[in-house]
Amino acid sequence: MDCIKSFRDVKIRPALIQLLNLGILICSALVLWKGLMCMTACESPVVVVLTGSMEPGFRRGDILFLHMNKEPIRAGEIVVYNVDGRDIPIVHRVIKVHERKDTGEIDILTKGDNNPVDDISLYSGGQLWLNRHHIIGRAKGYLPYVGYLTIIMTETPMIKYALIGVMALLVMTTKE
Description:
36% of the residues lie in helices and 21% in strands. The protein has 176 residues and is of the alpha+beta class. It has a six-stranded antiparallel beta sheet with strand order 1-2-6-3-4-5. Strand 3 (78-81) and strand 4 (90-99) form a beta hairpin. It is elongated and about 70 Å long.
């Protein structure tokens, strides 16, 4: 009986270690993401440019690094914003900033560098300006084309599932 028990332990222990390693890997990624959020004061410190609306400055697949601070937003800055009713943030340039004298709040108008008109049509129904709470972050730097894998996985979900499956298989079968 002891021989059977130790044989099962030998088979189960490596699988448990691999599951533990997978859990540690996932937790490490989450801690890194939360740390980046704290350091940059952004809810999303890294975003991928999904369209060509900012060409030639940023191309589809570029990864942007964002930060947020208390300094006033100025015309010419590249910001990432999200409006009510839309899930995907938009990367565009601030073309006009208007400060309201009565409240001191600012209104922001944006436009993609490669677009012929401003973004009013992208804002929520009847909305003519963005407010500071719509801004997720300001572009601080970028890596060209590194985010293209994200676009491919979004456009072709089968590739995403295959990649996740391969990664899980590698983690489960690695002997270390």
